[in-house]
Design goal:
By secondary structure, this protein is of the alpha+beta class. It contains one helix and seven strands; from the N terminus they run E-H-E-E-E-E-E-E. A hairpin with a 2-residue loop joins strand 2 and strand 3. The mean pLDDT is about 95.
């Protein structure tokens, strides 16, 4: 995905548990949403097979943030990180593999 976002604030993945996420989708087109899903599936395989870390750019109620993490699981609505930390998919702008 091409990023036309402001520079994200890099945070530790453990901080995600303390963030608040609005209900609105951050992407505007169906194509972007499909591409995000494909990137998540690729990142999940990378995490499970090679334990590779990826960068996730997302938006909480205070702005754009980025974490570096391994994705342990993907549901219809969330990605699951280590220690059971979850991040809503509808708030993810970009996956950098």
């Amino acid at each position: 995905m091409e990023s036309n976002l402001k520079k994200p604030v890099v945070i530790e993945k453990e901080e995600v548990a303390n963030l608040r996420f609005p209900a609105q989708e951050v992407l505007v087109s169906e194509d972007e949403i499909k591409l995000r899903r494909a990137e998540l599936d690729k990142a999940l395989k990378l995490g499970n097979v090679e334990h590779g870390k990826i960068k996730v750019v997302f938006e909480d109620d205070n702005g754009i943030k980025q974490i570096e993490t391994t994705i342990w699981g993907v549901t219809d609505k969330r990605i699951i990180l280590k220690h059971g930390i979850v991040l809503p998919i509808h708030r993810i702008h970009e996956i950098k593999i």
